[in-house]
Amino acid sequence: MLYTQQHRSTKVLMDIMKQLILIAILTTLITACSRYQPTILQGNALDSATIAQIKVGMSKADVIQILGSPLMQDDFQTKRWDYLYYSIEQGRKSEQKNLTLEFNGDIVSKIN
């Protein structure tokens, strides 16, 4: 009779262990399938406060100090600098801002 009670309690413990292991495996599989995708920011940060600091008549050096180097600078169009900023959330482009500056020599002549 003692042997039967020990056998039953051992069997119950084994069943509980199997269930716990199964739950742990399933939890691991479910969390592994849902991968984390961070927000990716590309280009120069172009918020309205920063853009408002750029004025016609500023030098290229002043612009670089405020915005940094332009993302795109055409070797054939040295009068134009293009700043581009976008963010990618969940694998999709969620926001995009463009800023084009045109220069007359070393001075900002037009802001788009």
UniProtKB/TrEMBL annotation:
Species in which this protein is naturally found: Leucothrix pacifica
Record domain Outer membrane protein assembly factor BamE: where: 43-110
Role this protein plays: Part of the outer membrane protein assembly complex, which is involved in assembly and insertion of beta-barrel proteins into the outer membrane.
Record's protein name: Outer membrane protein assembly factor BamE
Record InterPro entries: BamE (IPR026592), BamE-like (IPR037873), BamE_dom (IPR007450)
Top-level taxonomy: Bacteria, Pseudomonadati, Pseudomonadota, Gammaproteobacteria, Thiotrichales
Quaternary assembly: Part of the Bam complex.
A GO-annotated cellular component: Bam protein complex
Pfam hit, one: BamE
Subcellular location: Cell outer membrane
Keywords, alphabetical: Cell outer membrane, Membrane, Signal
Similarity-based family: Belongs to the BamE family.
GO molecular function terms attached to this record: protein-macromolecule adaptor activity
Domain of life per record: Bacteria
GO biological process: Gram-negative-bacterium-type cell outer membrane assembly; protein insertion into membrane
